[in-house]
């Protein structure tokens, strides 16, 4: 290893300690309820766990350079001391005896207020409660608890509506300095909806920004059959602001809903642009994560004398390593959190030693925007030119983006940047421009920093329920059956690898990601040419192409204001997708057992069915296209792929293939031995051949 790389890693592995001074931070930490979970079940040598629910109160100094970039923070209400105060609910799972835990904290950032991160790292029964876990079933195989972790989460997304045990922070509304409300146009898109009325934001689980003007002539509602179809303006007398669940006759005027008198058509896309008021200071989301994690890691008491519940004693803070994880939107959140510098707390200490980022592609959440809506994200089939977006910088390394001319990178603060794992599925290459993690907009390779590893869950779709050899799901509004497989087994193994790297300096598995250099990333046309001619299967003709958006002069890489809606699109980036093999499976990446010993062509893409905006990509779904059982059946259908019989011969042959694939992944440290055993048992119990 080169000396320069070794020096970077040594710096990253050592905690950053700076003498504490008075800084804006957690001022009050209140545990409102403490309960033993899982009916007192013992989790290995760690023993019993308890759940803490409460509220964290934070004060932020708008004058501190570390906070100065938060959009509209200067327009938030202030305390007598000139601070911006807000609060958020938190949720903690901790060993009842902290001395028996591993003294490590894992901060799993919730998705839209839902506590899903923990569920992606365990195997849960279908009946398990994710948002209000208390019983033993709710924690499944409890990998992280058996390892001794303290698990932390807190509300960050200010526009989530209360309900269903979601974590919702209480962030302030920004106002003009003279007290008037801030008003600006915003744009929302509705797709796959029915009925006569919708909340302005599109879903009842989010709080809508209310309109400042209910005169529909001063707003615009349009319809189009698909993203590529022309927009048709809907006359202002055919809709209104308000609710009308049963149609125009039941119209109740209001400022947070829309009523369309003719009824929404589920196969189309509607777009509303209206003058909104009272933006939340959404950039404070990152402060919640930074300041709560910093308090739990570094402080024994809050300003009121309330103890840190993770402390081993009055003089010893109980956490010596802190990690964070984010999945999908919160993977985008973590990319933004790091880029904006929030892994440095106000005492200039590193907050997280390492982070595990899953399935964001090159998207950043861009929550630090006036009238931010972190629920939306760019896809080919909806919200295409919306925030969140792949906006430069796209890479972890500092590089010059040839399309925008911006020279920047997500990681540029060696003293406080963490070690990073990013795991993407195949879907992120189709929907979230993931290939731009390893090449620039003109197709030239870019470096991966020494403190970063990139992994590719070959052929898998964006999400899914943790399972082993999971059956497919019905096609729904897609053309193909939807894949039932998910990449959680890889995520679990990489959690152990990340801890080994951060805590013991053990090199993790090398990056395993498709690249242009080895010809495993290719243009769409080349991927189509390599895909087998499977009867009745249409390869996508579209992917979520990226062009540089211009949202107006108030927007830049760190966020800001969106004054140009829709944005104009400047030069286009070259975006590539993984190259498939003769079975239609992606060649590159970590090949989980489902791909190494396949029973079907599994892809990260699916195509919308006729009548559902065909030929657009079908959301974040993958495809499951089963192999024929016998050679005769394969030949009768003109399927070029080998049948199950030709591949494995018998049920025992399939089980042997699964065993071999699992052993190989364990050796590569990409599958836990206990998960390998689960795969083998699932194969034995299956009906394959």
Notes on the protein architecture:
The chain has twelve helices and 26 strands. It is α+β, with helices and mostly antiparallel strands. Strands 1-2-3-5-4-13-14-17-18 form a nine-stranded mixed β-sheet. The protein has a four-stranded antiparallel β-sheet with strand order 6-12-8-9, with no helix packed on it. Helix 11 runs antiparallel to helix 12 (673-685).
Give a summary of the structure in a few sentences.
The chain has 689 residues and is an alpha+beta fold. The chain is built from 12 helices and 26 strands.
Descriptive terms for the model:
single chain, 689 residues, alpha+beta, nine-stranded mixed β-sheet, four-stranded antiparallel β-sheet, disordered N terminus
How are the elements arranged and paired?
Layout: H1 3-13, E1 26-36, E2 49-60, E3 84-95, E4 104-108, H2 143-146, E5 150-154, E6 183-191, E7 197-199, E8 220-224, E9 232-233, E10 239-243, E11 252-260, E12 269-277, H3 284-298, E13 321-327, H4 329-339, E14 354-358, E15 399-400, E16 407-408, E17 419-425, H5 427-431, E18 452-457, H6 488-504, E19 521-522, H7 524-530, E20 547-550, E21 555-556, E22 559-560, E23 568-572, E24 577-578, H8 593-596, E25 600-603, E26 623-626, H9 631-637, H10 644-648, H11 651-667, H12 673-685
Parallel strand pairs: 4-5, 4-13, 13-14, 14-17, 17-18
Antiparallel strand pairs: 1-2, 2-3, 3-5, 6-12, 7-11, 8-9, 8-12, 10-11, 15-16, 19-24, 20-23, 21-22, 25-26
Helix pairs in contact: 11-12
């Amino acid at each position: 290893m080169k000396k320069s790389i070794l020096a970077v890693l040594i710096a990253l592995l050592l905690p950053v300690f700076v003498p504490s001074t008075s800084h804006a931070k957690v001022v009050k930490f209140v545990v409102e309820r403490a309960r033993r979970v899982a009916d007192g079940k013992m989790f290995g040598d760690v023993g019993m766990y308890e759940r803490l629910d409460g509220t964290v109160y934070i004060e932020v100094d708008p004058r501190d350079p570390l906070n100065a970039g938060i959009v509209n923070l200067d327009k938030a209400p202030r305390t007598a001391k000139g601070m911006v105060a807000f609060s958020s609910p938190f949720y903690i799972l901790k060993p009842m005896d902290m001395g028996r835990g591993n003294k490590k904290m894992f901060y799993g950032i919730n998705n839209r207020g839902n506590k899903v991160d923990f569920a992606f790292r365990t195997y849960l029964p279908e009946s398990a409660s994710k948002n209000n876990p208390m019983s033993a079933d709710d924690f499944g195989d409890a990998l992280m608890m058996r390892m001794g972790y303290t698990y932390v989460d807190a509300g960050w997304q200010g526009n989530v509506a209360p309900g269903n045990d979601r974590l919702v922070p209480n962030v302030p509304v920004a106002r003009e300095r003279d007290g008037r409300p801030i008003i600006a146009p915003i744009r929302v898109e509705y797709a796959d909806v029915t009925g006569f009325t919708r909340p302005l934001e599109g879903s009842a689980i989010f709080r809508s920004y209310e309109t400042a003007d209910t005169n529909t002539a001063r707003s615009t509602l349009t319809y189009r059959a698909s993203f590529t179809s022309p927009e048709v303006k809907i006359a202002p007398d055919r809709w209104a602001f308000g609710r009308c669940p049963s149609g125009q006759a039941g119209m109740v005027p209001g400022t947070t809903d829309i009523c369309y008198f003719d009824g929404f058509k589920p196969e189309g896309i509607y777009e509303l642009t209206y003058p909104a008021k009272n933006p939340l200071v959404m950039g404070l989301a990152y402060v919640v994560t930074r300041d709560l994690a910093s308090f739990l890691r570094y402080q024994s008491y809050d300003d009121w004398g309330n103890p840190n519940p993770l402390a081993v004693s009055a003089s010893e803070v109980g956490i010596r390593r802190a990690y964070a994880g984010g999945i999908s939107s919160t993977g985008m959140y973590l990319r933004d959190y790091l880029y904006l510098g929030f892994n440095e707390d106000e005492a200039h200490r590193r907050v997280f030693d390492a982070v595990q980022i899953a399935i964001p592609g090159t998207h950043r959440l861009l929550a630090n925007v006036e009238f931010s809506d972190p629920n939306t994200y760019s896809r080919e089939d909806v919200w295409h030119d919306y925030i969140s977006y792949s906006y430069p910088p796209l890479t972890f390394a500092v590089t010059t983006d040839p399309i925008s001319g911006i020279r920047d990178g997500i990681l540029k603060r060696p003293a406080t940047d963490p070690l990073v794992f990013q795991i993407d599925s195949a879907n992120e290459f189709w929907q979230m421009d993931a290939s731009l993690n390893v090449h620039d907009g003109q197709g030239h390779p870019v470096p991966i920093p020494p403190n970063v590893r990139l992994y590719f869950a070959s052929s898998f779709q964006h999400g899914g329920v943790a399972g082993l050899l999971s059956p497919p799901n019905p096609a729904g509004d897609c053309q193909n059956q939807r894949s039932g497989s998910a990449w959680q087994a890889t995520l679990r193994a990489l959690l152990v690898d990340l801890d080994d790297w951060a805590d013991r300096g053990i090199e993790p598995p090398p990056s395993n990601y498709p690249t242009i250099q080895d010809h495993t990333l290719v243009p769409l046309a080349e991927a189509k040419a390599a895909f087998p001619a499977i009867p009745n299967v249409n390869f996508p003709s579209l992917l979520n192409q990226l062009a540089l958006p211009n949202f107006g002069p108030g927007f830049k890489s760190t966020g800001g204001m969106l004054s140009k809606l829709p944005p104009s699109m400047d030069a286009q980036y070259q975006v590539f997708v993984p190259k498939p093999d003769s079975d239609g499976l992606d060649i590159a990446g970590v090949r989980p057992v489902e791909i190494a010993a396949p029973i079907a062509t599994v892809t990260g893409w699916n195509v919308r069915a006729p009548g559902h905006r065909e030929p657009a990509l079908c959301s974040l779904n993958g495809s499951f296209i089963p192999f024929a059982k016998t050679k005769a059946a394969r030949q009768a259908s003109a399927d070029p792929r080998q049948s199950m019989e030709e591949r494995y011969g018998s049920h025992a042959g399939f089980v042997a293939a699964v065993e071999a694939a699992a052993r190989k992944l364990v050796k590569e440290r990409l599958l836990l031995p206990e998960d390998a055993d689960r795969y083998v048992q699932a194969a034995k119990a299956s009906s394959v051949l």
